[in-house]
Amino acid sequence: MPTLLTFGDSNTHGNAPFRDTRDYxxxxxxxxxxxxxxxxxxDDWTLIEEGLPGRTTAMPDPVMGAHMDGREGLKxxxxxxxxxxxxxxxxxxxxxxxxxxxxxxxITAGLASLVDIAxxxxxxxxxxxxxxxxxxxxxxxxxxxxxxxxxxxxAKSRALAPLLEIYAKTRGMxxxxxxxxxxxxxxxxxxxxxxxxxxxxxxxxxxIT
Length: 209
Fold this sequence. Notes:
- The chain is α/β, with parallel strands linked by helices.
- It is 38% helix and 13% strand.
- It contains 8 helices and 5 strands, in the order βααβαβααβααβα.
- The protein has helices at 10-13, 33-41, 70-80, 104-118, 121-127, 153-158, 160-171, 194-208, and strands spanning 3-8, 46-51, 86-90, 131-136, 174-177.
- It has a 5-stranded parallel β-sheet with strand order 2-1-3-4-5, sandwiched between helices.
- The longest helix has 15 residues, at 104-118.
- The mean pLDDT is 96.
């Protein structure tokens, strides 16, 4: 049975867009894009969801904690599960928060460090080899309830897709620009509405098959 591991942040976790700063809601499995993508791939596929709200590519968060560093999370995920056949990585949105001051080039470097971790010889041998789909998140916007955290995010995230596409091609990986298929919710400028999860799931499945 082929296995898909989806590694990411709140949009892989399935957070609904924030309507209120105190309102945490997670879409159910029938709505989240990882579940729908696995279902589209086939009934014989196994899904492992590894989405952590607030996760960055490669930076400890001074507010949310050091465990937001995606490098440590990916090492743990790849050691905890196995074997897998496909790994999707969709990160970079949280890196564009104002408090990190990260450029699109720095975010690309963070994602490159995750790919380097996943492609280590001992990791690949442990899993019997697996493929990677690098997903660029859609452009975030400075709007709604999270605007103050994401000042300057739009320009950074808009510049990210071309860089990641070049990087993925260089590494021989498949690439998906999520922003070519979906957009973030205007209610918080970061998260996806339910219908966008469904659209993204189809795009991910098509990119893998």
